[in-house]
Structure prediction request, 326 residues.
Amino acid sequence: MSAVLMSTETAFVARQSIEQVEEGTLLAPKFGPDGLLPVVTTDVVSGEVLMMSVMNETALLRTIETGEAHYWSRSRQTLWHKGATSGLVQKVVEIRIDDDQDAVWLRVEVAGGASCHVGYRSCFYRAVVTPPSSRPVALAFTETQKVFDPQRVYGDAPNPTQL
Amino acid sequence: MSAVLMSTETAFVARQSIEQVEEGTLLAPKFGPDGLLPVVTTDVVSGEVLMMSVMNETALLRTIETGEAHYWSRSRQTLWHKGATSGLVQKVVEIRIDDDQDAVWLRVEVAGGASCHVGYRSCFYRAVVTPPSSRPVALAFTETQKVFDPQRVYGDAPNPTQL
Prediction:
């Protein structure tokens, strides 16, 4: 873990050709017009998808340098060190980048075994019921028990889910 | 597989409360201002993340109804039946939705064993080299061999990677 964070200018290289971006061995990430790129986070042991989120440049660099997952919180409009409130820190085992370098895959170990603010292990705790012929489309729970009580962990903090 | 596709009005329910969205058993997806939601696709056998993409309402409904992955192609601005060109169709085994129903996780079987237009099994074929202290940040290949030759499969079709 580095105490002094380096600037994004030194960390990332410019995108100069498709071949360089797709087949090169230097990080040249492409952030969207909003300055963000999507991130998927999986549990390194179970392989389960835990959550999908976004990173800005600082969050990506902080994740690389500290080995703990940092995201950009759109609901709070701030850098988000995952687990800072709940204690459920995500320790990064591997950081993957995709072909055109505009998406990140984090493989993590989760302290406490849960990553979802609702209290479940994964944010993806429901599946579309198959065969999916009924309307409206029905969901079934894939996790039957919460790992923690969100009221106890987050108290009166605002719920990030928005209608 | 249904020949007649149903409208999104009958398929999805309105979002009326946080409790309904987070703990309910009916699909009430939230598409962004651009009409899209992010999707992560994993290989049901290896658990590996194959790709990240987006869906609009039609792509989501088409995926549910046909059992084959459909996305929205931002580079081509069209509904994208994955594998229509390459033959590498993704057969959907499970469709998960996240807590606030604004992200989808597809667990799929891939015909031909590859999902990346560059020719690799996964789009995430490179990882950040650890410890990541050198600058610029270096990448290492996690796949050493392509599954197919993109030139042979796609010919002169435009490369979706954009600088």
